[in-house]
Amino acid sequence: MSFKIIKIKKRGLTFKLRKYLKQKFTKRKTHKQLISLILCLFVIIGGVNAFYKYSFESFIFKSISNNLPTDKSGYTNILVVGMGGVGHDGQDLTDTLILAGINAKKSQGYLLSIPRDLYINHPDIIPQRVNSIFANYENKLGEQGALELLNSAIENITNVPIHYHIGVNFEAVTDVVDALGGVDIYNENLIYDPFYPGPNYTFETFTLKQGPVALNGKTALQFIRSRKTTSDYDRSRRQQQLIAALKNKAQSKEILTNPIKLKNLYNALMRNIKTNIEVEDILFLASTLKNFDIGKLQNLVIHDDPQSKGGFLFVPPKSEYNQAFVLLPIDPKYSYIQTYLDIHRKYTNTMSYHGKIVVKNGTDIPGFARKVASHLNRLGFEIVDISNAESNNVLESRIDYYNLTQQRVLDAIKKTTLINTVNELPVENPDVPILSEIIIGMDLKPYYDYFTPIEKLESLILQGKKEWYQSPLEVTSDESQIDRTVNLNPLQITSE
């Protein structure tokens, strides 16, 4: 991506912006270009509560200073946390957690939604759900210290360094949407939630029809917060959907040509955020991301369905966690989550394209190919067929592939299958579907456990489902209480 923003070095605009910031924004001027850039930034690095940080008054002259910090893969990583705020149940619980990464040079990015009920084991943190870390350590460490500790916990899970954090409250959602005059979205499924949190620990019913709907501030908050009759994962998807709607509305002529709405939007953002991002860094992020295509963002979620992409968590028996609903990783060292995020960061185009894969079993272990296929499916690959190889005594595993694109499918497959032997195939018939084939050989038998982490947890998972199934669902309006909404379908583990 080429950052052609040399013109901002001209003394007029740069000088005025510097003077404007030095006076602590005592002059209430706005500029439609600055607003557009800042809103674009929130939404990109946001998670539905994050767009509120970036002050309108900022944005242009960071380009003449040093670049932002990046990790070894070129990403600037920002942890976005949303909390209730004063007057809401569980006001300091970080119930929205999104790790956002922006690779400005490649114009790539990702949003990883982290479930609030993920149970944390960290050397510096008392074991607890991730959403309670900030609340439990704020008095001891202070606001920024507690956020830094939360950063550390997320770094331990993802193996990704976090450069910045942004904290926002529920009022940011309502204030920003109202300042924009509302937003339009398409609601994929009817929402009927009779247990939406009301005032003073009461309930109120929230309903939203399926199809195109116009959201005001209140309904937008309900749209991204409701979960009792859906799930945390559905809520994460709705949060990311609202991000796109906000970006589109903020960049519309209706907003950019209306000084009153711009001023209201600025005020809504500035009164609802906590962050360690310096103003000049915000400016640079916005200036480089003003033309960023949000459609290219990878939306990643981790959850407890082992049959689908991102299914690296499970629900343990509540009897082992003081009757609380928690989520645990299938590997206590988070290695599968880290691999999942790593390949989507390194092989962005490949994982967006998926790369169609056939897996064949060349061993005497029944169902081995299906286990490998499930492993790859959780990581985000598209498996189109599972079958037996010509022999059940293939000595060496290999990858047969057609080298037709620069999607780097081969590198991604090698990283996730422990297979290094490859065989490039010639394209003899252009009408034949182009697939990569993985032939599982006898040399992978010692690594069977690597591909089948769920099997070792099967009894624990089934016990957890049994305990939750036999207990009546307890619903509470207090966001600080446990969420007992779980998937009660029996665990599907096959041996084909």
Identify low-pLDDT runs. Answer: 1-66, 472-496
Order of the strands making up the biggest sheet: 11-6-1-2-3-12
The largest β sheet comes out as: 6 strands, mixed
Q: What is the CATH topology descriptor of the largest domain? A: Aminopeptidase
| Integer tally of domains | 2
Rough outline: globular
CATH architecture of the largest domain: 3-Layer(aba) Sandwich
CATH level-1 class of the largest domain: Alpha Beta
Which value, in Å, is the CA radius of gyration? 24 Å
State the fourth-level CATH superfamily of the largest domain. Answer: LCP protein
What is the helix tally?
Answer: 15
The class by helix and strand makeup works out as alpha/beta
What portion of the residues fall into strands of 2 or more residues?
15-25%
Number of strands: 19
| Mean of all residue-level pLDDT scores | 77
Percentage of helical residues?
25-40%
What does the oligomeric state look like here?
A: single chain
> Terminal Cα separation, in Å?
46 Å
Please characterize this protein's 3D structure.
By secondary structure, the chain is an alpha/beta fold. The protein has two domains: 6-301, Aminopeptidase (3-Layer(aba) Sandwich); 335-451, Alpha-Beta Plaits (2-Layer Sandwich). It has 15 helices and 19 strands. The protein has helices at 11-22, 32-45, 133-158, 170-179, 217-225, 232-250, 253-256, 259-270, 279-289, 335-346, 348-353, 368-379, 409-417, 448-451, 453-470; strands at 76-83, 94-103, 108-113, 119-122, 125-129, 164-169, 183-187, 191-197, 203-208, 211-215, 273-275, 298-301, 313-314, 328-329, 356-361, 382-388, 398-401, 422-424, 436-440. The strands form six sheets. The protein has a six-stranded mixed sheet with strand order 11-6-1-2-3-12, sandwiched between helices. Strands 16-15-19-17-18 form a five-stranded mixed sheet, with helices on one face. It has a two-stranded antiparallel sheet with strand order 4-5. The protein is globular. The model is unreliable at 1-66 and 472-496 (pLDDT under 50).
